[in-house]
Queue: 4 jobs
Job 1
Amino acid sequence: MKKAEAGEAVNVSEEIVKLTNNVISQMMLSIRCSGTKGEAKEARNLVHEVTRIFGEFNVSDFILMCRSLDLQGFGKRIEDIHERYDGLLEKIITNREELRKKKPEAERTCEDDMKDFLDILLDILEDNNSDMKLTRDHVKALVLDFLTAATDSSATAIEWALAELINNPTVLKKAQEEIDEVVGEHRIVEESDWSKSSIHPNHHKGNTPSPPSDSHDP
C-alpha cells in the first residue's frame, strides 16, 4: 500500500509468498511469518530454506556410489535445518502448552473458542482416549508439511491467476472496476468484501462458472 502511494515498484511474487505464508501460519500457529523479529523471521527463513532444498539438484540421487559421500553438502544442510526447525517448533509448542494450562478447561472445550491447527493437534496429543494417536514428532512433521507445501502451492496459484488477468485486459478491467466499487481506493481488500463481490456463490444462485477454455503450461 505504501509503495503504491509512493509510485514505487513492487515485487509481486515476493509479496504473494509473504501473503500466503501469513495466512497459513496464522491458521496453524497464530503467528505471522512475514514479520522481522523472533519466531516470525526464523519460521519464514526455515520455510524458504526447506522449499529451496527440495528443488535443488542432488547428484547423489542419480549416481548411487555418491550417496554416502555428500559431495554437495546436502546432509549437513538438512541436519542444520532440522535442528533449527525442531528447536523453533519445540519452543512454539511448549509456549502453547503453558498457555493452555493457564486457560480454564471450560474455555478450552467451548465450541466458540477459536482454535488454530496446533491447538487441534495438541488436543489429540493430550487425549489418551483418542482413536488417533499422535506423538510430538508427528505434530512437528505435520506443521512442516503444511507450512512448506501450502505456502508454495497457494502462492503459485495466485500468481498464475494474476498472469491470466494480465493476459485478458477486458477481464482485468472488470476486476479493477469491481474492486474500486466494493473496496475503494484508500484501503486494501478484506475478507468481509468477499460477500459483496459479484463472483460470490450467493450471487450466482447455484450456477457453477465454467473453467477457462484454454490452458497454459508452466
Job 2
Amino acid sequence: MKVLPAVALGLFISLCSLTEARAQGRPKLAKQRPVTFITREARVGKVMYPLADMLKAGELETVNREATAFDADGKKGVKLSAAENEGLAWLKNIDFDHGELEVDMKGKDVFQHSFLGIAFHGTDEPNTMDVIYFRPFNFRTDDPVRKIHAVQYVSLPEFDWEILREKHNGQYEKAVTPAPKADEWFHARIVVKGADVTVYVNGNPQPSLSIKKLNTNTHGKLGLWVGNTSDGEFANLTVNYK
C-alpha cells in the first residue's frame, strides 16, 4: 500500500477512532498530535482539515494569492486575497481520489468579481485540475441567463468555462437551488465518485449540478480556488473518504 509523503510537523489533523466517529456521526476529532504520515487506510470516514491551523503551520501552498487566517462570526478558516488571474491554496501532502468534499464559503455581491470554489485532482503541471466553483453575484439575480450560471465545472486547462459554454451550453453550469444570498456564507457538498461529480448546496437533497469529468485523472491535489480578480473565504473543510 502506497504511503503518502510525510506531513510536516506542526499540522494538527485530529483523528479519533473510526468506531467513535461513526457512532457520533461527526468528523474525527481527538487529541491534538502531529501526524507524520497518512496512509489510505487512515483516510476512512470523515476527516476535518483545520484550514487556519494548517496555514499557520505552513501546510497550505498558495499560488498567486495571499492567505490570511480568520476566526470570526462562528467561523474559523482562511481568506484568499483578490488579484489578477486565478489563485489557489493547495493542501500540502493530500492526495484526494474520491469521496465527499464539504466546505463553507463566502464570496461577495460584485458582478464578475466573485468566483470561488474547490480544486481537486490537481497535477504538478501548471493549471491542470478539476474545479467546481460558484458565482455568488448570480445566485439571486433577476436575469434568467445569469441565474443559470451560478455553479460551474471546468477541467483545466483544456475545458474552461468559455469553451464549455460555447460547445455544451447549459450542461456544465447551472442555477443554485436554494439560492443563497450573494454575500453570506453557504455550504457546498461535492461528491466525486469515479467520473461522476455532483454538487449540493445548503443541505438541499436535490443537486444543483451533476456532470461527468472531462479528463481521466483519478486522483491528485486538493485546494481552495478563486477566480480572476476574486477573493474568498473558506471554513469547515471536511472530506469523507469512501
Job 3
Amino acid sequence: MNKEEMEMECPTQSGRTFLKGALIGGLIGAAAALLFAPKPGRELRGDLSEKLNTVTDKSKELASTVGEKAADLAKTVTSKTTELSRSIKEGKNSIVEGVKQVSADVSDDLKEVSSEIQEANHEQSPE
C-alpha cells in the first residue's frame, strides 16, 4: 500500500476533531464509571446531577468565551476592512491623478510638436 492509498483510507484529522472526540469520550467514561460504581440510587443520582451541573456551567462559560472572541474578531475584521478600503481608495486616487498629469503632459507635448511641425512647414513652403 503506497502513501497516497494510506492517506485516502485514514484521512488526517484536525486537532478540533480530536478534541471533540476526547471530550465526548471523557463524558461517556465518566458516566459509565458513575453508573457502574457500587453506590445507592439516591447517591448516584446526586452525583449525576452534580456532574451535569458542572458540565452545564463549563458549557456556558465556553459559550460566553466563544461569543466574546467572535465579537472581538468581528471588530478586528471590520477595522482591517475599513483600513484596506481607505488604502485602496487613496491608491486609486493617486493613480488617477498620476494618469491625468501624464495625459496633460502628453497633450502639451503634442501641441508643442504640432506647432513646431506647422512652423517648419510654413518655413519650407514657397510663398
Job 4
Amino acid sequence: MCGTGLEQNCSGRRDFEESALRGGLGATIANSRGPESLRGLVAELGPSIKAGTAREAASADIVLTAVRWVDLERASQGLPVCNGRIVIDATNPVEFIERVGHFPVDLGVLNVGEPLASLPFGSLAASNLVKI
C-alpha cells in the first residue's frame, strides 16, 4: 500500500487494512516519510502488516494507492511497472489547502482514473487498474 496518508483515520485506506487483517493477508504499507515513521501504525495493526519502502509496497500482487492528488506523479516515480498486477487507485482529484479546506481539481476532459493510468507505474497496458 503506497501512501498511508497524514490522517490516521483515512477511511478507505483503513477499511482496506482491516479487511486484509480479517482475511489473513499480509501487507506492506509505505509513505513518503519512510518505514520508521509507520512504527506505531504497524504495531496497532498487528504482525501481518509491515512497514516498507514505497518500492517494496508497490511490488506486491495488489497495490492500493492513496496519496494526495498533487503528489501522485512524484509518489509514483521510480516504482516498478505493475506488469498485470492489480492496482487500486483511491486517489481523488481534490487539492487540500491547509487551514482552508479541500477543492476539486479541474481534470478537463480526463476521467479520474486516467492520471494514474498514464504514469509508467500504473500503466493500463501493464496492470489491472481499479478506480475507487
